Amino acid sequence: MTSRKPPGAFTVRPLDPSPGRPGRRSDAEVVHEWVTHPRSAFWMMGDARLEDVEREYTAIAAHPHHDAFIGLYDGRPAFLMERYDPTEVELKGLYEAEPGDIGMHFLVAPPGTPVHGFTRAVITAVMEALFADPRVRRVVVEPDVTNTSVQALNKAVGFEVVREITKPEKQALLSTCTREQFEAATTGADR
């Protein structure tokens, strides 16, 4: 079997929204660069100032049902991951929650030089991190209906579209992926 997963190690750590120290970029500065890049249009922060990003991620850090993480590839920041309780954040009242549901957002850093299969490897690493918690039985996402790229990635790791929903900021495809669906989609598959 040939692996399309880039060589290297993925890890995640909590995002620290505090201002950087001299000589070191803060997480907020890194994320600001990512969310304002034209490739990140679906993140809806294209016009955000650094202060807006600091404020957003400070609020997430303080929220009891929402967390943000910096994803590292070989020790270097490579993606943003958010985990949330969909009964309290993002999807509250918009779907029929099940015990063990967790919501997820992810954003891959705009590449300097694209690496084939990297984004798929990132979403796989994100799902592995979420399912590392034995309480998580199903991951729930709500991508924009026009974001066909992320919909294809979601399908590749086992997500199934439940239905279209209306959120204040977008029309979204409510999609879910159980632990079993993820394992079936990724175990033994070329990735």
Global Rg: 16 Å
> What gap, in angstroms, lies between the N and C termini?
10 Å
- What's the main sheet like? 7 strands, mixed
Tell the overall outline.
globular
Total beta-strand segments:
7
- Which strands sit side by side, in order, in the main sheet? 1-2-3-4-5-7-6
Mean pLDDT: 89
Helix content: 25-40%
Could you characterize what this model shows?
- The chain has a seven-stranded mixed beta sheet, sandwiched between helices.
- 28% of the residues are buried.
- It is an alpha+beta fold.
- It has helices spanning 27-35, 50-62, 118-131, 148-156, 179-186; strands at 10-14, 66-73, 76-84, 101-108, 138-141, 160-167, 170-178.
- The longest helix is centred in the middle third of the chain and has 14 residues, at 118-131.
Brief description of this entry?
The chain has 191 residues and is of the alpha+beta class. It has helices spanning 27-35, 50-62, 118-131, 148-156, 179-186, and strands at 10-14, 66-73, 76-84, 101-108, 138-141, 160-167, 170-178.
Summarize the SSE layout with pairings.
Elements: E1 10-14, H1 27-35, H2 50-62, E2 66-73, E3 76-84, E4 101-108, H3 118-131, E5 138-141, H4 148-156, E6 160-167, E7 170-178, H5 179-186
Parallel strand pairs: 4-5
Antiparallel strand pairs: 1-2, 2-3, 3-4, 5-7, 6-7
